[in-house]
Amino acid sequence: MKRLRALVIVLGSAALFTLGLGWLFNAYPMMPLAASREAVRVDRAFNGLLWLSIPIYALVMSSLIYALFAFKAKDESARGDNYEHSKGRWVESLWLVASFILTLGLAGFGSYELKHILGDQKTADMEIQVNASQFSWEFFYPEQQAYKPQLYLPVNKKVRLVLKSADVLHSFWVPEFRLKQDVLPNRITQVVITPTIKGDYQLRCSELCGLDHTVMTAQVHVVDEETYAQQFAEGDSW
Amino acid sequence: MTLGLVRGIAAGVAAFLALYFGLKTKLPQEGSAAISYFVALIVYLAVGGGWAAFQRWLNAQEEPELHGARRYFNFTTDHKVVGIQYLCAAFFLFFYAGVLALIMRTELAKPGEQVIGFQTYNTLVGMHGIGMVIVALTAIIGGFGNYFVPLQIGAKDMAFPRLNALSFWLVPPAALILIAALFNGGVDFGWTAYAPLSTRGPMGKLFFLLAFATAGFSSVFGAINLLVTIIRMRAKGLTFWRLPIFVHSIGASSAITLIATSVVASSLFLVIFDRVLGTSFFDATRGGSALLYQHLFWFYSHPAVYIMVLPAFGLMLEILPVFARKPLFIYRWVVISFWAIVVLSCIVWAHHLFTSGMWALLNFPFMITTELISVPTGIVFLAALGTIWRGSIKITPAFLFAASVVANFMIGGLTGIFLADVPTDLHMHDTLFVTAHFHFTIVGAAIFALFAGFYFWYPKFTGKNIDTKWGLIHFWGFFLSFNATFIPMFWTGSHGLRRRVADYSANLSGVQMWISIAAFFIFLSTLVFLINALRSLRKGGAAARNPWNAGTLEWTLSSPPPVHNFDTPPEVTRSPYSPVV
Questions:
Q1: CB A91 to CB B190 under 8 A?
Q2: Which residues touch B44 (CB under 8 Å, ≥6 apart)?
């Protein structure tokens, strides 16, 4: 009877806890605007993990808090139960098997999403070169043979960004596009992004690159084809 | 002077300055600094008491017994003194790095530049990081490990008492040269010192590398000593399956130290060679590799987090049964899990490199191994829950700090899945999300367990009782402000706040102000702890032999224990956690 009551209380409060956290993450979303096709996939992976971890967290925390209240010592000399493992060891066996299956499931889910992200990186409609150096960014547009200090991207075009560093490690990251890629001095790396929402974003170097790492940012403009073409028609904009 | 430590430091500093300014005219600046440092290190050790100890060893003389406060400042082989030395050094560094964090939080309270410039901020990030890493690596292992492992296994001292002293004595020079780095151009590479950034720039970086390497040697010496002690010095009848869980955790974490630390120490030396000798291991412009350093560094530094948290798990599971008045749940499963963590921790390092540009297919195996670690870790937390379940719980500061490791590590562990998962890590990597995650795992486990152990063993190592009421105030203050500080960082991180930057967009300013205020409450609660700990030394009243009714061997001794621990070698006939009859 007592065990049943404990089970009901723990599971009940875990369910309430899950609902509460679910409401919270709905009201205050964890991810910023998803402004690229790749971002949608990353967000799906994120939400999958979030909805898996919330119930686990709720269950463990409800058990912990319940135990703190329900099993408080009545008096100084009181002793707890004497067991060293559960009867027939079924609790720990279940926990072990469940966590093992869960982990493999997670790894499978992650591998599946990653496989698609990597697959998407293979083709692109156009190419822009990104040159990083302490502490600035420079963009070379091969089609127009033009250098610019800002990154212009035509909306809904799959663009391959070819990344090079002149000195130390840097990292290419626009939070709204999600994908992040380090920029190396002795090797070319690349990231393929399809921006889907017009607007202004900020490129942030996200690999500590020296004293002025903080200010190593650049403007990113996602514009329609016409505006994109105009950028280069107006002559050298810098 | 009777204080060997002071004498040694004075001689070491003098030797360094004399040699450095003498050599600087003939050699490149960094070369002369490196040579001067190693010579000064030997001078410091010799003058501080090492030469006398060496002579005593040559002449087969006994180590003298030192008494009073003086012994903490002298070269001594008593493991209990070494433990207290470690503990004090760790708390000193904890406050130093904590104050740096407060300065950083003041800068971050509002967007734009506040009290310090962006560049100074950058240096403080690295100093705070390496300072706290050394705290997390040494406080429990060096402090409690040295003090309580020999007591818990019924030994008179460590297996290699002189090596033990040496491993502590390497900590002060590491701390000093680290502080000196601040005044020699600082460091701009965080605590990770990624090459090629670390192969160029001011001499402060060389000092940082020397400090890190010195701390690495100290760590390896300590690990050898603890492992041999655990294997060779156990009391009669203290079999593998009767060892206290804290001893198991120290053994497992020492094994990781031995496997991994030499790798990071050698990679630090490669960076030093690049700077001083003109080699080019990491300098891409001269044919080096920009990625190699990251592999070498994380081959140690990911296992290092398990060096920090395994003893925390051990302490948590040592303390919970005592206050729940119950045997430890699934003891053997936990021990096996510890060793599973040892093995797995060595094959996960490249999860720090998902965005680095390494071969893309490597992402898959490292994602899988990383997520597999949650299986043995899960067993540890099932053991914690199962231990307090149906117990008879006495709420004390030690118990609350131990139990809150579960609460903190749930957040730290579950958010770790988002970082182990490559698709989400591509977004979260190098953001405040990571910062929040590792503070929940390292502070949430290692520092909370450090406090738990402190309240638990305070009566034993001081002989005085620590005030419970102020202990509870410390706990609630620390626990609540810790969560209030670090939970919002997950949100700011995923919304675009990078790690190690001093400025941010205006839309984050409300959250940032909140975090900064909460951070000050962490500091306040730590002050409560400090005052309580010092005040109880005077007013605590004599502690009983076994105030908590615990079953491990250290509680059979007087508080504090006598110099040579056990008059008659103890004999063990049962597990400390076997059911109470």
A1: no
A2: B8, B9, B11, B12, B15, B173
